UniProtKB/TrEMBL annotation:
<protein>
    <submittedName>
        <fullName>Uncharacterized protein</fullName>
    </submittedName>
</protein>
Length: 161
């Protein structure tokens, strides 16, 4: 099952206040018809997993972070006017598609923002990159809880035989 947020996060008065005072910024949407999915999965034998997935699709998934953001380094990259315009245009397009919450001026108490950069490769369109690795946000995630074993072509061949 997917882990819920730790009690230290759920009971943090700063975070609770930010969430309660601006619920429109934390909309959780899903492309699935959750009522139909619940009916379809009602007989699934792994209830803890199914319930955690349905809860995540309704309330949002927690990344397994321990809730300690003291190691988080806030960095604001300096962008050229061209890159700033690109980031603003890209962000607005994602907002228009419903992928982002409405814009707001400054981070609420308890919020952290990872650095965002523009990467331009020769002959390609520029790309917006959100750097989760160097900001410290991922430092609170226990890597032993997030390891993934990928199937190989050999595994696929064994299944197909």
């Amino acid at each position: 099952p997917f882990l819920p947020p730790p009690a230290s996060v759920l009971n943090d008065p700063v975070l609770v206040s930010s969430l309660a005072s601006h619920p429109h910024l934390f909309d959780v949407s899903s492309p699935f018809h959750l009522d139909k999915l619940r009916v379809f999965l009602r007989v699934h034998p792994n209830r803890p997993l199914v319930d955690s997935i349905l809860n995540g699709l309704t309330e949002g998934f927690w990344p397994g972070h321990d809730g300690d953001f003291s190691a988080t380094r806030e960095r604001t990259p300096h962008h050229s006017d061209e890159y700033y315009t690109f980031l603003a245009t890209t962000t607005f397009a994602e907002f228009e598609k419903g992928w982002l919450s409405e814009p707001f001026d400054s981070l609420l108490p308890g919020m952290h923002a990872p650095p965002t950069f523009v990467v331009r490769l020769p002959g390609r369109k520029p790309r917006q990159v959100v750097d989760q690795s160097s900001s410290g946000l991922n430092n609170g995630i226990d890597s032993s809880l997030t390891s993934v074993v990928y199937d190989t072509a050999r595994d696929l061949g064994a299944v197909l035989r």
